[in-house]
Records
---
Amino acid sequence: MRVALLAHELFPERAKTAVGVLRYADHEVVAVLDRDLAGDRVNDHVPDVQDAPIVADAADAPDCDALVVGVAPIGGGFEESWRPDVRAAIRQGWDVVAGLHYLLAEDEEFARLADEQGVDLRDVRAPPDDLSVATGEGVDARVVLTVGTDCSSGKMTGCFELRDAARERGLDAAVVPTGQTGIMIAGWGIAIDRVISDFAAGATERLVHRASDNDVLFVEGQGALAHPAYSGVTAAILHGSHPDSLVLCHVAGRETVGGYDTYTLPDPERYLGLYESVAAPVAPATVDAGLLNTQGLDGEEAREAVDGYGDRLGVPATDPVRYDADAVLDAVLE
Amino acid sequence: MRVALLAHELFPERAKTAVGVLRYADHEVVAVLDRDLAGDRVNDHVPDVQDAPIVADAADAPDCDALVVGVAPIGGGFEESWRPDVRAAIRQGWDVVAGLHYLLAEDEEFARLADEQGVDLRDVRAPPDDLSVATGEGVDARVVLTVGTDCSSGKMTGCFELRDAARERGLDAAVVPTGQTGIMIAGWGIAIDRVISDFAAGATERLVHRASDNDVLFVEGQGALAHPAYSGVTAAILHGSHPDSLVLCHVAGRETVGGYDTYTLPDPERYLGLYESVAAPVAPATVDAGLLNTQGLDGEEAREAVDGYGDRLGVPATDPVRYDADAVLDAVLE
């Protein structure tokens, strides 16, 4: 699929979805829309992903199959400044893919235009309407779940990096996406944070069963087990995925919960114990590896931070974007 | 409010909501509807609650303000055999209150009839539509949360018993209801299991703030922290309520998860550690007391079971339906 990525005024630091698609999706990206950076190229800002021109609006982008909304604002709202681009995309015959709480298919203008043009509006965050409670049954595939000390700590990125490393070894490996960005990259999944809480573990279980013909599944965790707002989503995925192995993700230097600065993050080694002890009665998984996001550290600092993180946890660790994931992959496949 | 309770073929053992209303609500119960027991009286089956006649259908019941659906079937469906009673109630000018996933207000016949008669259909499980994520802010009132080793372990009952004991001491005390039965008894609340998982902690927080003008709040926990299906709801309430004190509820002799018999329940003392360690980073609450459901044990067995449970946890324990809650109340108010 050929796509254009909408990321106005936020590319690349605050456009997690756009950067995720550039880095991990099979899609060919024909352009990034960011009116602040028009004229630049993607590789001017993110060197190690596929390159593409950055343009000011949809009319300036090459023809393609779909416009992907590549930003995920807190609250999941729709920015009215995006409307002309979504309108233009539909008129150009492109599908529009979004992961917002605001559903494009329920927007009167977009729904009417899409109907006239015969294009699809795909709201990947809208859950299926036939979900149910978990049965408690796991799968035969090896299930590796990324868990975190906080939101935005590298759980999704870790899954895709570990999947690619496993595929290089000839394994059938898949990411099980549980959030909007992962769903856009992989093309399937359920946004567990949008599911009725009674059904959140059941929805996770359904995803894992659906992918169970692979040798190994990398399940995208969400939130953190002691997060003041999102621990429910975390616990549902922890039990609903029936993991064999856990990978603890952390951001180097982060000491308080993102957006909740009065809450101090527990130490990673304490978090390791929390995850293992809560998982145990349902699925006796151990934290077999650590992933550390070292963005912002220089080379030597990053290496030291990763080594220190592995030592604290007592397991192999890496920054999978910066370094290879071989030792971590060995540890989670054992 | 004067109410009739619908509990066909399930009173009293499998009519948790009806028995809860009889025992704890301020409502005057004019009749219980159970076609299998018509002609008996409530006290023939449940001796220690308000008495009322048991009748075969709504037409046989004395006039009142509302018909309350007093059963909560797994899955939350509507039994078509209840339709004649709901229809008759509306025609008699009664409101109808239900806590089902199936919403009476969306039933075409009931909605039309209710409109004609000017009566309300109150679906207490339908969440408010303006929920949002938790802010992470607690309240000044003392917050006591009942947590459990399983579903149906006495968390709701414990809250109402402790509330009544606190009121006897002259304290302003309120139950914060998080499930359909508690909501029907107290007349307010949110069914957290029905809330979008991203907003579950936020919805709990809203309830606690709403009741914060009391001296002490008894928050109704849900599920269990290591439950294969419902741990997400549990974790959201654990953090969203910002508890000062936890009370661990357990059913004497239960060894496997109800409805999930392949899962062994962790020992209560291990569960105590799970709750405290996961709560700590957000709200450093301790398990200060235990509640044991000894239904089915004879007097001496029950006393021994309660003493043994308290010894294992190292805190005061009681069966609040069978014995007084004084020592437990002392412990959670300290």
---
Amino acid sequence: MTKNIQTAIVGVTGYAGAELARLLLHHPRLKNHPPVFAGRVDTKDLAHGGVPLAEIHPQLGDNAGAANLKLEPFSWELLTTRGVEVLFLATPHEQSREWVPEALKRGLRVIDLSAAWRLTEAANRAVYDFADEATELAASTQSQAVYGMPELHRKQIASAQLVANPGCYATSIILALKPLVAAGLIDLDRGIVADAKSGVSGAGKAATARTHFMYAADNLSAYSVFAHRHTGELLEQAGVSGCQIVFTPHLLPIPRGILSTIYVHFKMAQTHESVAQVYREFFRDSPMVRLYDKSLPQIQYSVRTNYADIGFQLDSSGKRAVIVSCLDNLLKGAAGQAVQNLNVMQGWPESEGLE
Amino acid sequence: MTKNIQTAIVGVTGYAGAELARLLLHHPRLKNHPPVFAGRVDTKDLAHGGVPLAEIHPQLGDNAGAANLKLEPFSWELLTTRGVEVLFLATPHEQSREWVPEALKRGLRVIDLSAAWRLTEAANRAVYDFADEATELAASTQSQAVYGMPELHRKQIASAQLVANPGCYATSIILALKPLVAAGLIDLDRGIVADAKSGVSGAGKAATARTHFMYAADNLSAYSVFAHRHTGELLEQAGVSGCQIVFTPHLLPIPRGILSTIYVHFKMAQTHESVAQVYREFFRDSPMVRLYDKSLPQIQYSVRTNYADIGFQLDSSGKRAVIVSCLDNLLKGAAGQAVQNLNVMQGWPESEGLE
Amino acid sequence: MTKNIQTAIVGVTGYAGAELARLLLHHPRLKNHPPVFAGRVDTKDLAHGGVPLAEIHPQLGDNAGAANLKLEPFSWELLTTRGVEVLFLATPHEQSREWVPEALKRGLRVIDLSAAWRLTEAANRAVYDFADEATELAASTQSQAVYGMPELHRKQIASAQLVANPGCYATSIILALKPLVAAGLIDLDRGIVADAKSGVSGAGKAATARTHFMYAADNLSAYSVFAHRHTGELLEQAGVSGCQIVFTPHLLPIPRGILSTIYVHFKMAQTHESVAQVYREFFRDSPMVRLYDKSLPQIQYSVRTNYADIGFQLDSSGKRAVIVSCLDNLLKGAAGQAVQNLNVMQGWPESEGLE
Amino acid sequence: MTKNIQTAIVGVTGYAGAELARLLLHHPRLKNHPPVFAGRVDTKDLAHGGVPLAEIHPQLGDNAGAANLKLEPFSWELLTTRGVEVLFLATPHEQSREWVPEALKRGLRVIDLSAAWRLTEAANRAVYDFADEATELAASTQSQAVYGMPELHRKQIASAQLVANPGCYATSIILALKPLVAAGLIDLDRGIVADAKSGVSGAGKAATARTHFMYAADNLSAYSVFAHRHTGELLEQAGVSGCQIVFTPHLLPIPRGILSTIYVHFKMAQTHESVAQVYREFFRDSPMVRLYDKSLPQIQYSVRTNYADIGFQLDSSGKRAVIVSCLDNLLKGAAGQAVQNLNVMQGWPESEGLE
């Protein structure tokens, strides 16, 4: 029988952190082993040993055994004392850049939800404005990172010390594209368009002009055109180059969910069945991908699940396809995929605690 | 023929200010006489003589003659130079407390959208935490203020130097209650309940935890129970006392609109017609109130109009009534009513520029 | 060890039916014992033995063991053959009136989500326009019905043959009022106001003018003023009379959730603690009620849970209170409460499968 | 001075019809000349000479002179008696196919909002399943039709007897593409993608499963992939062929507004300024198109206006562009454009009554 493991979450105050807490608190393998919650704690709360989790997220207050859980001040000693083995970071990428090398040194396995370690070192530095120096330590840490998409890297994740949990947009697009690219079906020279739309939780918990209800409601807007940071993941993981794909994100007036509409040209005419066959083959052992056969996925069916839903339609020539890919940006696009990675790392069934 | 007048708006950056700008720019009596827009202007914008209005509110950019309008740095000299006669303040109440006495001294007529001068001096100081001293000047300024609800104070507004534009919740409730209170129909001892619901624009433009899309969307919450500042206006203007009415505001997941559901007991049994008659009589000369006879108002029908919509239903005993009152919080609840007051002050038709 | 039981659902196509299916499919005591789904099945689907559940509700398609579930044509023989012991009816009340007597005769225990058997026979016939004759059978069936609110009737539910599952509005109001009425705190002569707001799923799955997105979105409307059918439940179960309470429902522009704002006068001045004490006492053994102490419930925190959330605030005199009660209309207001009743009937922990 | 003209609207009950009525009732050239409203009238309403407009659309009830307007039973005699000169049809396309030939025979000028006459006869019959025979009359009627997009066909519209008012999606895409296609900038062989998103009013007033609040809210779905009827208009009017463009519509959870994200490849590298110059040139005399220079259009800024808003961004190579085009589907996408066409036909300023 598998022994229980001790997890910790840094960054439980955000949306992804809250979902992660909920998932781990209900995970069948972690019963009676709630995560340690560590982070910044105000002086006034220190006196009480931390902030009650139920105060940060009222909806978490009644989960089995959660009544007395607290956010405690982060320290490496805290993690050691509690016997933490797996550390989840739902922190800004700057913080992950700083903490991950130390965590690895201390023998922790890390699942990092930030963008800090998703790309090769060179690509990473080109995209993000990392504050840390390009030291050898950084490079060697990066080289240990596995891109945490079990559908692509299941085996490496199983033995990884550092899992770089994918971005939400990237997940929805890579899963839709990779099988077709890998099978050599797509005429890359004619270009791929990935038109993606995400709910407001993707914009984070900070109250800004863009997350104001009056801005987001009854609206739709494109942003970061030709400039979104997830593009790097698309390029490396889907196996396309920057001149072969255009990715445009949009802000949808809904709380959660992503729908990506992806346009490809095939080298040779395909049938619906020939394409379906490629997808089925690729995702044969992937319990968290649902392939739509007759209809197209919609946001409403994937929200609040950990599934990536994929469907497509060909034109009459069989040379063009529109692929629709849906997922919940906080689950398969963040916290759910993190737990899926945990399952893979522990050798548990991949979808455990996620259905 | 009426001569054109020169207006100015301070506070055009907020939601009510933007609506006010739109209304004045389209007002038939103010053609070719756009308001002066005055406020705080950054140093870098000073070089260009101010901030283009179209940059602050893109939707205002194409109004007739508005292409070159700018937000200019506020100064009394600016107002004088431009010949401003009527000053609209869509500013925080602290600022209105400070500026109104000076404006009156300079001979300007003021329509103040803030809460600074709506109550009698005593009530005002009890409710708001005014920074200014309780000087004689403050008291004398207050004594000149007319509560800007034309349906109640048309005559005084016509000659007022200072009009205190009512609060949005207050407008929706006072208009529904005042006719019945004035006619002596209501049994005040049994208590009145005013359960009011407002769209998010009522919470202002500041990005806060409460105006975040993720908080407001798919939600409803009560707030300021037994403690909302508009209560003072209800008491003074509807003619009831604090122990006779309970007013509870709620935050609705919509951009704009208020619906107040008001519960009263009558002293004696009424018929639908006897109550309707009281309303018709009271609002005989009020073009901006619409009385619903067979159905009840809904937010969708009053939004983007300056109407206050009122309907009601009696129970079978004829001794209890539910009154439903709807309006657009930014129009009849703020900017629209301000223009209605301008019309009254200028002797123009009360609904001009508002239909 | 408890033996597994066999359940059946009639009416799985509606919103409450879908939630009920989801809950029973995940219920820890019903693992590997999915419900029988019975209803009307088209001739063309008959050939395949019914309609796949995943076609009716795509979101149910991936639940453990649900892949091959079907909606089968209803017949009493079907229920007998499958050994059904507990029958859930999520049907129109006319159908429940017809089927329940037969089901009881056949020895089934019935949990009826419709309004067919919630009231005493006399009240029932006054409110609903039942097609069935006022026979002795109807009267005797009615007399066996227990109002399915465990917080009030736990003991009778445990041994009931027929449980009449409460209405959603009624649940939110009765739970808030009953403790205070039972404790004799409320001055009923001064009247109670229950101003309730519900999401659109409460209006049912039928596509009508009122459920059209263009009508419901960005809107709020009151309806059935002095005339809502749930009033009967309020009167009988909360222990008040029709002249003592006014209940007004409103249609909120959100998918699900109810918030009721309830206004009461106390006979004598109370403190926050004295009222809190009454609630705590009343709900001491009720795991599905959450009492809010410092803040007020909001729809966002109760949606997608089976909790009824209750909070309140007193005015400075201690003689008036505003009570806020929130729940998910499809869970604690329908399917969740039905499962809670099942738990009570089976002697299982009341909140099992509901957290 | 221009003389007043008499208009008539058939189909005022729908969303576009209501907007059309509102615009015509406020049009400065039509003061005191409200349209005749003709359509199907129930027998019971016939007795009163028709249905009051305010009953069909409460929000129209208070427009100047609209209090007594009625929907009258359609007959050609009615139009003759009232001296109707311009007939607006906001009817299903089958009805427009039937009525337009007769209307032209009677000397009326027609602005048809349906899809009945937008395409060349051959294309039209391929796309729509017209019930009328392919008679000579149909062909000759078609040959008189002018596609009602003033930005493209101003001159022909001015003298047209029959104006085929464009589709909403088509308008948003054609206006964005046509200038670049006409200037020969686009590499058509590499394909164009038009990913379009529309609010629910675009799906019409009928209550269906798709327009149910519970389906549309918090959701996004693609539909009619490779099969939307507006594609024909795109091909003919934008000057591209079916193998050069893919158009995918999506249903947005908002009441109104369209945003189209359009992806093109240029034959040769362009600069932002070179592309901007092409647009400026093309729309030099088009008052209802707003070009965005530094930012991209959003739905919130075009909704409730008759503007088509266009902005774009180039990638670093200057060979690819993302164009964003926004409009209000009921205004520039339907009723507003119809009034714009009326203005052109009458020789009035093109934007009159539309700002």
---
Amino acid sequence: MPDAELMQRLRELLGDKGVREEPHPDWPDIVLKPESTEQVSELLKLCNAAGQPLVPWGGKTCLVDGLNETCGELALSLERMNAIEEIDTLNRTLTVQAGCILQVAAEACEERGLLLPLDLGARGSATIGGNVATNAGGNRVIRYGMMRDLVLGLEVVLADGTVVSSLNKMIKNNTGYDLKQWFIGAEGTLGVITRVVVRLRPLPQSQNTALVACGDFGSVSRLLGWLDANTGGTLSAFECMWPSFYQYVTREGSLHTPPLPQDYPYYILVETLGSRPESDAEEFERVLGEAFEQELIVDAVIAKSESERHAIWEIRDDVLGFMAQGPCAIFDISVTVDHIPDFVAGVDAFMDTVPDSYRVVFGHLGDCNLHLILGNTNPVVFDKQKLEHGVYELVEKFGGSVSAEHGIGIMKRDHLGCSRSDTELELMYRMKRMLDPNNILNPNKIFTADKVA
Amino acid sequence: MPDAELMQRLRELLGDKGVREEPHPDWPDIVLKPESTEQVSELLKLCNAAGQPLVPWGGKTCLVDGLNETCGELALSLERMNAIEEIDTLNRTLTVQAGCILQVAAEACEERGLLLPLDLGARGSATIGGNVATNAGGNRVIRYGMMRDLVLGLEVVLADGTVVSSLNKMIKNNTGYDLKQWFIGAEGTLGVITRVVVRLRPLPQSQNTALVACGDFGSVSRLLGWLDANTGGTLSAFECMWPSFYQYVTREGSLHTPPLPQDYPYYILVETLGSRPESDAEEFERVLGEAFEQELIVDAVIAKSESERHAIWEIRDDVLGFMAQGPCAIFDISVTVDHIPDFVAGVDAFMDTVPDSYRVVFGHLGDCNLHLILGNTNPVVFDKQKLEHGVYELVEKFGGSVSAEHGIGIMKRDHLGCSRSDTELELMYRMKRMLDPNNILNPNKIFTADKVA
């Protein structure tokens, strides 16, 4: 339990609405809910002086167990700091408090005719601050980049309560070290993000979607380069599904009618976002026709209506359904495109040794990002650690990344060394020690507390 | 003079080719030229132990006096480490040693059918390492981003000789802190960049260029948003010239025939890079026609041949010619688009108070980046400090950046506070102290040595 005197002072600072007890079996029972950057700063000063650790809460998607294994932390939620402060249509920027929900911000921008490019499954619960802290990826990275690429400015509060305000709105600004980069993707371990300036883009006027099939992986990788070269900057999705994915999702009795036969080696959802509804559709069809003539693809179905587009995306997005087969581990890894076939073959060989197993492979192939769902139809034999060990050993073998877009949290902490050298890790520890010497900010995430003691 | 024993050991380490005396009135006379990362590491260990400062040399463009005011440094040139190690056409990456000249790397990529997106005037002398160290911008930022956005991986040697190898080739990699970001744009003060992995793009197949005129600044800023929204991701240049620029460059007796009359308020070079030579030209003309109908532009000339395109770009690029008018100061600043008219009006009002003055305004408006050339036709009254003071006071007033793309170096050191708060500066000092406690790496750049003593 936190120190009684500290709690008393936090209650005085934050008021009744600012300190809530929300009992939970795994998460901290006490949640601090400041309403301003000043309150964040003051509460951090108090906690830092008392050595009281905090775990910042975003949307709590928890894909890397970021909230589990807490020991004595207070939770810090910015849900009351959720204001959309400015949508600047001339400079095309959004200034927003960190607690704002991604979807709320995106819809507000859309109403003003602008696109907030980040989009991901958890859009309805994820916060902008969480998206920055985890350098979120999602559905349109191939076109607009990760969250890091969209952030122009940040306001961050350091562990000692120092407010670092770098709310830059300019695209070019080379004035000394780019401090915001230190905090993006640091998973809340170096500072608490309180405000963000996001670069907005014009709203696309056309969206063209197809599901295509490739006969071998060489064609898949050539198709990626070829489409990127022939769609003039509009390619926004290149989502690859292995037959294990496609066959299961579109199986008899499932919710989906298979738009293409089920016996192709690779299925790819391709999408472009353009500015000319009339000509873009025609052009999209022509480009896919050429890909067919060049034998890059062996089959294709182009969405001719909004409902057909949704039907294709729903196949790609129907990920939760797999888990009905039995307990599983979900992986979010990267390997370079040339290594993907051997990596997937390695996963197959490994899973062949696991009894009563099932496997699903899919991913944002345009970004080198694969997701794997590996599980057991017989719950009794499920061994998560064994599955993780098997996969991360392969990731290390192929020089890949144990976390493409979800971060490290607690779940991947022990596997960080597969993708990062001791020298790199030591630099991370030094940074953590410099900015958070008492280790109060999200301790034990990314690396364990003893590394920075 | 450096310590004799240190020099002896450096000569033993680097050999005859690795230590050269190149007398120069302003720059260090002794240049170290290592041929490998290992040599860079060893020489840094020696210099760090001896407290011997170093100034890393790139292409020596020197736009922010990065090489002047040296006091006892040894120069460190990576010109012998200039190998193009790999052009990976499948993953579309370039792995290159830091001393490689930008143009050499770009041409090698082009031969393999790929685009190295960074392009700038000094392409024939600037090195990739220098481009990373300064987070270079240039001609295509609006389409492909700054150098930071193109770097996938880095190898850096720290002041104490530690080699940090983060030669990542994957687009998505959220495994702990993104260390490379610390060194990009740090102007060689935190580490010596030895190797870089650059993300490549498909070579554009079409290039459409026009010079357009706008009647007022409101139209200019609306045109930027409108073109971005209506060219489907292909807009690559939006270069604005004020009449002071256009009229002088195309004056009677100049090298250039004015493609448009000389009495418009704003001239803009617009360019798109697309993938469909046939339809893109038609589309470009149609979009500009619509802009004319919507009264965003009042006149336009579209390049119909490669020589017409060159003629337009040569007007934009004929910057050195201005300096024939007399001594001048060159500025590289950013302000948000909404503030540009007031900022330029402020510069005009200020320059009206300067006797025998001339002024030129132009810039990468799509990136908020203005360049100013302010000088005196009468050399006797030229007062560079006064001009700098006048401009940076205006930059601070409008919340702008004293360096958009050239960095701080020595020239802008005293003005960094116009764009950065004391809190931000203190964080920079702390980082410098952590990574280079003896202050041997490019001391006195960005901030003076006493700040980190």
---
Amino acid sequence: MDVEKALLTRRSVRRFTSERVSGEDLEALLEAGRWAPSGLNNQPWRVVVIEGRGKAEELSACTRYGSIVRSAPLLLAVFLDREASYDRDKDLMAVGAFIQNILLAAHARGLGAVWLGEILKEKRKVGELLDVPGECELAAVLAIGYPAEEPGSASRKPLHDIVLKRF
Amino acid sequence: MDVEKALLTRRSVRRFTSERVSGEDLEALLEAGRWAPSGLNNQPWRVVVIEGRGKAEELSACTRYGSIVRSAPLLLAVFLDREASYDRDKDLMAVGAFIQNILLAAHARGLGAVWLGEILKEKRKVGELLDVPGECELAAVLAIGYPAEEPGSASRKPLHDIVLKRF
């Protein structure tokens, strides 16, 4: 898929078929994330891969979007490693770039995905469930699989609301 | 350019030719950013476009990377709009996704770009120079133009250092 097409047509997908995501696809998503930019190249992102149904079920209890979590054959829990961090603001932006690379790679491969943030209200519990080191702070959960729905319509502010000034 | 090729081959470019970036290219970059995802679709990103040499010169005094700023025919100052913000962590990650979309669109068009973060140490001064509303907080400056150098080699952690666990 062409880059700009991917950038403009990626949408959140919240319902998935039961078809598994292949190991090759999973590796490609992580590889795309890996090449995201970060300040001082500190790469503060960490990931837990969840395909097992038992762990997905436990995670689903941590969010009001549990049905999305249960429906997704692949979940990526993304963490900020606070020990690798040098500037929280910059590192969070880098994690956002990492996530976006993964979402774009998923879209390019015909997978659907959604970036779940509401689950952060239970970030400690999720960290415990996934047994991650204490320095790893939950940043997002990505639910990924083959789409079982057409994404709904999406809207964005017009450019003139985003561009404040030109010099 | 193919999406995955773009995701894997984008590198920071820090020296630019004097060739201007066309209005069409600029619009495509902003359009790519516009379609980034954000929590509650709040789109907390704002941009100031800088092509004029006078303003670029003023900005260059705010960072030790002034030569990059002066060399770039196009600068995009990216801001977090704190009035549009609902959760600082999530909004910073969304701004990171916005920036990454712009960097990828630039790469796809044969442009080079670099994400400058060190300039945030002068975020207030930059906000004043660019005369943005007080609720807009500098998040990054992107320097963009046609590459006058081959990007240097880049490295990333191996996947097994990023993936903490699999369930």
